[in-house]
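## retry 2 of 3
previous attempt timed out at serialization; input unchanged, resubmitting
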Amino acid sequence: MPEPARVISGAHASSGRDHPLLRRILIGLTLLIVGVLIVIPVVNIFVQAMGGGLWGYFSNLFSDRDTRHSILMTLIVAPISVAVNTVFGVAAAWTIARFRFPGRTLLTTLIDLPFSISPVVAGLMLVLLFGLQGHMGPWLREHNIQILFAMPGLILATTFVTLPFVARELLPVMEAIGAEEEIAAISLGASAWQTFWNVTLPNIKWGLLYGVVLCNARAMGEYGAVYVVAGHQGGRTYTMPLQVNKLFEDSRTSESFALASLLTLLAVVTLAAKVALERRTRRELLAATRPSEVPETNDLPHAGAGPPSVRVNQTRLRPELIMTTAKPVDSASAAPSQGMAGA
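## retry succeeded, writing output
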């Protein structure tokens, strides 16, 4: 009997043994692929953009009116889309994480829909809805409202494509944190707005910022959906990615690379912020899922309000929230509090 055990143990040791040659081959292939597909093209963009010197770089970037307008359009469209998706993402993630209702799975699937649809198809969908021959086209024309080939169309297209990012980043964070602190705050008399600002938002802040960073990066670099609804109107509806393509097609390569380098620089800054926020989010999740060292109690120490069945983690509930929002619900519960205050 001991012999088979020795054989099995040896097999496990052999399978778990590190192979230096295989490890070096895998690392080398990974570095080769990353270098050829990512590092070399990014470096080439900056080399081509700086070919005329620093003065030539800024001249290519800001001398053309259409290029300046594309930068302005990007700086307008992207923040609006990010703001809309931030509000939607927080609301959707809180609803899905805190409630169980019919259609919950369908809602989660619909949030992920922009990930599976081509951006060009998303732009075509907006054309079919808001175009002159679309479902809402005649009504919009009667009321002199223009959606397509204008800024509202760009915002709608960008918002649709970037819809899932904030919600998808917040869902695991809110599910890991749980609703115990929110329930405790409400039981102590906090309003919904106080609970959100003092309990929910501090717990999800790093996940929220992480989702906002990813959403902003996708919004600034969106091409397919925006290309469909922009209507080929350079100087009016072109964002930075569209202007880069237009300059390259017009054989204005130096200006094209200068504008592309600006987009790349924004992407690098976004990547650095993403890595930093990802580490903070991971630490927040680990802290949330780690068992508390202080035992929980069924008694609320600072107020008589709230059912005793609510279990409060004393180490994570903010004292200022307890002191400012605790409200006695009847005279019987208020008397002990007044006696303690007099003491």
